[in-house]
Design goal:
elongated; 60% helix; mainly alpha; 138 residues
Length: 138
């Protein structure tokens, strides 16, 4: 036991460096797992949105166990087979009206389309364009 403590006392810097490297490795693995989980959740959301957009139906939510059991051989759960597609004559229910966000977006676009005050003089951008197009020294 004395030999181990003597070795630790003589090599404390290397031991601390090794410990720090293991800590960085553990944090890196933890961070990578978190990023991969976030990417997977994002892919599932995008896949669901695409399936909802193309099929026009609300898909059932899958549990994580069934998603984990699915193999790559069976394909992606977001691939649309012909049986998943709704009939062409099926009409989708309409919303009660425009949402707050679309109404706000419409009002912002309308505000941007209104002309600025037409004060005296011409547009400074047009002046700059005419100056750039005019020959030098004239």
């Amino acid at each position: 036991m004395r030999e181990i403590t003597a070795w630790m006392q003589s090599n404390w810097y290397e031991l601390g460096n090794l410990f720090a490297e293991f800590v960085f490795l553990a944090v890196g693995i933890w961070f990578a797992r978190k990023v991969l989980r976030t990417l997977r959740a994002s892919q599932e959301q995008v896949g669901t949105l695409i399936k909802l957009t193309v099929a026009g139906t609300i898909p059932e939510r899958q549990s994580t166990n069934t998603a984990a059991e699915r193999s790559f051989v069976t394909g992606s759960p977001y691939w649309i087979t012909p049986s998943d597609a709704p009939p062409a004559d099926q009409s989708r229910p309409l919303d009660d009206g425009p949402s707050r966000f679309s109404a706000a977006g419409h009002s912002i676009v309308a505000w941007l389309n209104t002309p600025m005050s037409s004060g005296s003089g011409s547009n400074p951008l047009r002046k700059a364009i005419r100056w750039l197009q005019s020959p030098a020294g004239s």
